[in-house]
Amino acid sequence: MTIDDHDRRLMHLLRDNGRLTNQELADLVGLSPSQCSRRRIALEQSGLILGYHAHLAPQAEGTPVMGMVEVRLFNQTDKAVEGFNRYVLNEPAVRDVFKLTGDYDYLLKVAVADLAELSQLLTRLSSLRSSVSNLRTSVVLERVKENGVGFEKDAAG
C-alpha cells in the first residue's frame, strides 16, 4: 500500500488518540468524512494500523510495580528460542518483549502487583534452564513517558 501525507497524518492522530471520531479525523486532516473513513479502513486492512487500545493506569490493573528484565539465552538454537518465546507469550506479567542486539538477547517489560510477585517471576524465568542463561533486572521508579505520552507531575508532587 502506498501512503501519502494524509495517511501519515491519520495514523499520527489515531496513535495519539484512538477515540477520535471519523468526523473529527476528517476535520483535522482536511478530508471529507467518507474519504477519511475509506483511508482509515484501508490502513487497518493493510496492517499499518494494528489496533486500538485503552492505556490503563497500573493501579486499575493491580500491577503498580514495573520492571525491565534483560535476558541472555544460552544460545540461539531453535529449542532455546522456542522455549523462551513460548514462556513469555503465555506469561501475563510480561507485557512487552523486544529482541535486541548487544549484550542481552531480549528486553522484557513486566508489570506485577508487588516485589514478591516480581521475585517469583524472575525465579520462573531463571528456571527455563534450557533457554535462559542470565537475567538483569531493573525496577521502574517513575514513568516519565510511555507509549509516546508524557506524564506531568501535579503541584503536589
TrEMBL record:
InterPro entries named in the record: AsnC-type_HTH_dom, Dimeric_a/b-barrel, Tscrpt_reg_AsnC-like, Tscrpt_reg_AsnC/Lrp_C, WH-like_DNA-bd_sf, WH_DNA-bd_sf
Alphabetized SMART domains for the sequence: HTH_ASNC (SM00344)
Domain of life: Bacteria
Stored Pfam families: AsnC_trans_reg, HTH_24
Signal peptide stretch: none
UniProtKB keywords: DNA-binding, Transcription, Transcription regulation
Residues annotated as domain HTH asnC-type: 3-64
Keyword Transferase in record: no
PANTHER family recorded: LEUCINE-RESPONSIVE REGULATORY PROTEIN, TRANSCRIPTIONAL REGULATORY PROTEIN
Name the UniProt record assigns to this protein: Lrp/AsnC family transcriptional regulator
Biological source species: Aquincola tertiaricarbonis
